[in-house]
Amino acid sequence: MKQFTINIPVGDGKQLEVNVTFENGIYRAESKDYFDNLLWAREKVIISANNLEELIEKLGKELKNKWQEHIQVKEKKEWYIPRRKLFNPEGDDNLQERRVIKWNTTGIFNLNNVKYWRAKQLYNVMIWNFWIPEKVKWLPEDAKQYLEVLTDAERRTYDGIISFLTFLDSIQTMNLPNINDYITAPEINLILAIQTYQEAIHSQSYATILETVVPAEKRDKVYYFWRDDEYLLERNKFIWWIYQDFIDNPTDRNFFRTVIWNYLLESIYFYNGFAFFDTMADLGKMVASQRMINYIRRDELTHVTLFANLIKDLKREFPDMFDEDLVYEMFKQAVDWEIRWSTHIIGDWIMGMNEETIDKYTKWLANERLNLIWLKPLYPEYTENPYKHLERLWDHNLEKWNFFESTVTNYTQASALKGDWNF
Ligand SMILES: [Fe+2]
Ligand SMILES: [Fe+2]
After folding, report:
1. Which residues pair with 101 in a beta bridge?
2. Same domain, 47 and 130
3. Catalytic residue among 206, 269, 271, 361
4. Do 247 and 392 lie in a common domain?
5. What spacing in Å lies between the alpha carbon of 172 and ligand 1's midpoint?
6. What pLDDT was estimated at residue 76?
7. Domain range holding 370?
8. Neighbours of 326 (CB within 10 A)
């Protein structure tokens, strides 16, 4: 049996909370104190239906019939976001009225006529970023350092961060298609599919690191680090829960929350981990792992842009859905969690990192990410990146570094697509 709650707007800014159960193929809606919050009707009502759409339709009718004068039941689409049909012969692909969600698209990828040009530009960057983890060289050097050079504390940090990054890429690989199911612009469906592929590649890159660097008997310990580390378990659960909520209950609000959550994951959660690899490389340690991270980071920057664009499109097309207070609240939660976890796993035993730099970096980064979606900083006094000096280790001109052992055929082919874009 599955249980969840639907909130139905009933006018005057009030919401009716209806408990829904799904058992043996039947949905049942039940409101114990039916309209208790309106104080004038107490009646137990149970409605059964074969599917969720039918249930919501029946609920709407029920409300309208009984309390017509008192209640304005909003149209179904305003609280329950429709999933894109795979193919819709009656659909309309015209560009003027196309919307990122809730549009009646045919399902055909007509990528010659696109509305969201930034998505096409991003496509070029993402394809040009093509790489595969198996071709990144010199990981065996890191394997030697892992055993002979790293301190126990550094090894623990390395393991914990790899574990968290593995979780993030696992959940992104599996969840992005759930979001894509609701997007009604093929040019955005296209890049979300590529992002999904890239997250899968990132998962494989951690497997490659573990296979090469970490002794075989320790690998599972890294994958399941959260079984013994309650900070990581709590953190992972917190990230998962908002995604799961949208899957179980695909309302407008949950969609918006899941999009903001994706943005926070892509734009904040990876970065203290990345800073750890940069800091280590700066000390001459685990340099090949940091190179792998550079490739991943280059991909992640396109994911940040993808979700920033999506958020701005939603704000323009569905201003009612855009809840600025909620965005700030979620940012605050995300920053608190990132600082708590990073302080726990990085501590003060890595030269160049400590509680203060983690705090400064995370808050500075949050401001930058808010700025990208045209919002004011949450921490206006945090204007400097404490790890600025590490940016020289980033991915500038990666292609010139000749990381690929064999010929760079794929890379050269991809470079030809570079074309004319601004990123
Ligand atoms: Fe990723
Ligand atoms: Fe990503």
Report:
1. 183
2. no
3. 206
4. yes
5. 7
6. 42
7. 117-415
8. 13
In a domain, 297, yes or no: yes
Confidence (pTM)? 0.77
Burial 203-235 (b: 16+ CB within 10 A, else e): bebbebbbebbbeeeeeeebbebbeebebbeeb
Residue 352 CB partners (closer than 8 Å, separation 6+): 279, 282, 283
Q: Which ligand gives the minimal distance to the CA of 191? A: 2
Is 206 marked active-site? yes
97 within some domain: no
State how far the alpha carbon of 242 is from the alpha carbons of 181, 193, 385, in Å: 17, 21, 29
Give the per-residue pLDDT at 206. Answer: 96
* Neighbour-count burial of 283, counting CB atoms closer than 10 A to its CB (0-12 exposed, 13-18 middle, 19+ buried): middle
Q: Are 178 and 50 members of one domain?
A: no
Q: Where do runs of H (alpha helix) occur along 214-286?
A: 216-223, 230-248, 252-264, 271-282
Task: Please identify which residue in the block is written with the tokens 């899957």.
Answer: 247
Query: 90 lies in a domain?
Result: no
Residues of the chain with pLDDT under 70: 6-19, 25-27, 29-47, 60, 62-79, 395-423
Residue 109 inside a domain? The answer is no
Closest ligand to Cα 166: 1
Contact 68, 57 (CB under 8 A): no
Q: Considering every ligand atom, which ligand is closest to the CA of 206? A: 1
> Ligand 1 mean position to 314 CA, how many Å?
23
Residue 71 CA to ligand 1 centre (angstroms): 46
Boundary (domain end) residue, out of 78, 99, 131: 78
Q: Under DSSP, is residue 383 helix (H, G, I), strand (E, B) or coil?
A: coil
Residues paired with residue 3 on neighbouring β-strands, in sequence order = 21
